[in-house]
Prior knowledge:
Elements: H1 3-17, H2 19-25, H3 31-37, H4 42-70, H5 73-92, H6 96-124, H7 130-159, H8 162-182, H9 197-208, H10 211-223, H11 226-241, H12 246-270, H13 276-300, H14 305-316, H15 319-331, H16 338-362, H17 369-392
Amino acid sequence: MTRRQHFSIILILGTLSTVSPFAIDMYLPGFPAIASDLNTSISQVQLSLTVYFIGISVGQLLYGPLLDRFGRKKPLYVGLIIYGLASVGCAMTSSIETLILMRLLQALGGCVGLVAAQALVRDLFPIKDIARVFSLLTLVVAISPMIAPTIGGYATVALGWHSIFIILAIITALMLVAIYYLLPNGRLPDPSISLRPQAVLGSFFTVLREPQFLTYALAGGIATAAPFAYIAGSPDVFMNIYRVSEQEYGWIFAILAIAILAPNQLNHLLLKRFSSEQIVYTTLIYQSVVGAFLVMGTWAGWYGQYGLIAMLFLFLCGQGLTGPNSSALSLAPFEKHGGSAAALMGSLRMGFGALVSGAVSVLHNNTAVPMVGIMLICALSGLVILLFGQRAIHPAGQLEEVRE
């Protein structure tokens, strides 16, 4: 593989991974406009986000076996076409109920990018490079929240919130062309893999019986759900409580995305000296401590707008380390069932994301406490699961330390 091919593959896989994040982040600045235009409340618009997370969680379970059975590209084409058509449907909606339905369909189509990208990393790169490649993918994904809300904010002001979904449909069409011409096939179709419910469930149970997968998929999944609480709660916190504009909110979101981007690059250096296991453990302790101060300070009124942004920045720094390392450790034991493993891991993460975003909506009380409180719970829960799960990983079955 030449350097140019390596770069193009990473870029395409990273872009695939941003399909769903872009659909999440880009319309956040439009929440007040959507609520006003559709004669509904912010909490109802937040439900369209929660439904999107549910769709991603369920959809990934469907695509895992399909990617193993039919190869990587055919399911990709089908899912992205559904995503593009649903995006157009979102742009044409005139009621919150229709928007929620279209968002569900959009999620069911777009989630194929998340599963396929992770499965293709396992297909195209050696095990020792998986954590490094996931860090590079996270770099591309981290750029999404830096630009998506900003684009969404300006598009909402200039063209209306409907234009956001038209832009998403255009991006999808361009991605389909890039996938067809530039992305390798990865693992070939395997006719021996049955799509019968019993066989599919058997593949998932095979994955779940691996202690290393279960430990790091659960710990990493709930820990990386913390940003979903931030994503669900931040439009209300910043635009309704602190009264920032759509454009200003986009810039705040972009600044906080740097919190994930910078540590992600640090991960390359850390992997030369420490194992992925050590990095995940230390990062979860760090986030638990910072999260405790974040909650106490928010509840006590220590932070204004800028103090809250600073504390959120410190907390989110951990995401750039937890995500790629827990992903690498979760998927490394698998070869034949790589698609199913990637689907389960992604489904768990988005399932946790749906739960925490829904909790933020239900606990909404016109303060930032529900948002930051749930972020702390995610970090603490991930740490507890990791501590107990590591005991279940038999030393003889542990994967060799994943280093760069």
